[in-house]
């Protein structure tokens, strides 16, 4: 992976690790529980991606920075969570940032490993939603991706735009940045404005 | 994989995807939640199978039909769920059909990848129960495989019969069809007649 | 893997399978539910380990003893659970034993596959906590690793000591035994004495 891609991957890991650690702080779990949930949330999406595309052992097990980042993010959240403020809002912002970044790195890495464009877009989405699903299953919460706000779709849109940009052979900046911005921005606007996707016909009275 | 095996795999994916989509419709989730649960349920068992036997990237990521089938099944369930009628019964029929088909395709593919007969039968069972377990974990339901009705055992019987038929070197029809019919039929009869497996001694008064 | 390592792996599988089967007996699940939860708990950690280090198909699918052990452990727990006595305490002892053994076998196998020491220690911890997490997710319980008692940290300490001992090039006994004893003993003492790790600052009044 290029340096830019590794940096985005590490920032995504930090964002997801913070979201997982804040969920753990809120229960509250002890310091080891916070670190385990930070690690599982930060690294879970990338583990899923690497297992599915056959890139084993996963990147996170071959590069100590991938282990250090969620460890530090977990400790920061543990110690400074009151400064981080109203937890629910912070969790959702960090979660959206991790989602946007992972939709990009997931799709690009899948293309690198020879997957076709539709499969690469799907892997981008799975990378983006995987860490949050693991966090929510471990914490006994309904996975955010299945709740009513738009989540999986922004991830898929971001990942698909990355795949399209790679096909168009644009420079690295134009491949890496717009997809993450699209996925993060779409998600945040949907969250703030309370956008909802359609419910099944006849079920919208619930 | 032979054409017949791919067809059975796709029909199993469609059946499980419908079961996942109907669980999602019933909560109710929005259209993207329905598609995510349809995809995770339809493709989850095969992903587990392919990861465990080392067939990465999984078949579903190398063949666009594997992605199209759960997408269409999810949209059909989203739009036409009132026509599909009483959801609980439909979910269990589609679920049993997917289970029967995956017990066959899982066992045959595991044998193709060189696993010994007992391991291949186990992989058949894991393929058959995996999608439903993922569906139920994501939806916050107790996995159907752990509830009281017979589920894992019919899957194991179906997968074991496939392994035996391959050992006997029968033709393709006799390898593929009886196992699926046995697993599906056993499950449906158990469900309709309320058959139960024994509870632990001293615990059956619950 | 050496014979000693396979023996420790099988004993760890038996211990975890008993813990899973006793959780199932306690719900109560039927005989097949008990066997499924015994198998998932006993083999889940090793499956995770082998998938993450790229050792597919997993050891449990290439050696019939790995399938026989959880099967027998499940049947024993199903039939003799009243003799096994007060279930909660037994579950936690078997669970701690499986955790200690898997922290060793996970770390050693990861080193064998070429992972760096910090990643190998992490794989040891994941192997040690994976089966219990799968058991608790399937059974609808909050994973024990996230509850307040010390769990992940003893596993990491045990796995780290193994990695250090391998680096020091000690004999097999000194590599395999101390790590398991440290992880198991630390966990049991923490459990019996009610040791707790620190809660997040400001959250300890909960």
Give the topology, please.
Three copies of one chain form a homotrimer.
Chain A: H1 3-26, H2 31-53, H3 64-84, H4 87-112, H5 117-138, H6 152-167, H7 172-193
Helix pairs in contact in A: 1-2, 1-3, 1-4, 1-5, 2-3, 2-4, 2-5, 4-5, 4-6, 4-7, 5-6, 6-7
Helix content of chain A: over 70%
Query: Which segments of chain A are poorly predicted (pLDDT under 50) over 5 or more consecutive residues?
Result: none
Counting structural domains of chain A, the number is 1
Query: What structural category characterises the helix and strand content of chain A?
Result: mainly alpha
Task: Encode the helix/strand succession of chain A as letters.
Answer: HHHHHHH
Assembly status? homotrimer
Terminal CA distance of chain A reads 46 Å
Biggest chain pair interface? A-C, 31 and 35 residues
Number of strands of chain A: 0
- What would the principal axes of the Cα set say about the shape of chain A? globular
Could you tell me the strand content of chain A as a percent range? under 5%
Rg of chain A, Å, rounded = 16 Å
Main beta sheet of chain A: strand number and arrangement? Answer: none
Main location (chains A, B, C): membrane
Transmembrane segments (chains A, B, C): 6-25, 32-52, 64-81
Subcellular location (chains A, B, C): Cell membrane
Domain Glycine transporter (chains A, B, C): 7-81, 93-163
Plain-language structure description:
3 copies of one chain form a homotrimer. Chain A has 7 helices and no strands. The first copy, chain A, has 206 residues and is mainly alpha-helical. The first copy, chain A, has one domain. Chains in contact: A-B, A-C, B-C. Chains A and C meet through helix 2 and helix 3 of A and helix 2 and helix 5 of C.
């Amino acid at each position: 992976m290029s340096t830019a891609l590794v940096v985005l991957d590490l920032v995504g890991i930090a964002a997801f690790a913070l979201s997982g650690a804040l969920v753990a702080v809120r229960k509250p779990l002890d310091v080891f529980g916070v670190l385990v949930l930070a690690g599982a949330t930060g690294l879970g999406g990338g583990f899923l991606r690497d297992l599915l595309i056959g890139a084993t052992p996963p990147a996170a097990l071959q590069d100590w920075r991938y282990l250090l980042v969620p460890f530090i993010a977990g400790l920061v959240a543990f110690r400074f969570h009151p400064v981080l403020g109203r937890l629910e809002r912070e969790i959702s912002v960090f979660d959206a940032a991790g989602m946007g970044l992972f939709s990009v790195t997931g799709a690009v890495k899948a293309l690198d490993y020879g997957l076709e464009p539709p499969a690469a877009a799907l892997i981008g989405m799975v990378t983006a939603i995987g860490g949050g699903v693991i966090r929510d299953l471990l914490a006994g919460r309904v996975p955010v991706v299945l709740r009513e706000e738009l989540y999986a779709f922004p991830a898929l849109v971001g990942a698909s735009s990355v795949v399209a940009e790679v096909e168009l052979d644009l420079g690295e900046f134009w491949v890496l940045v717009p997809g993450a911005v699209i996925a993060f921005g779409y998600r945040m606007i949907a969250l703030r404005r309370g956008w909802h996707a359609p419910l099944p016909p006849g079920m919208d009275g619930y």
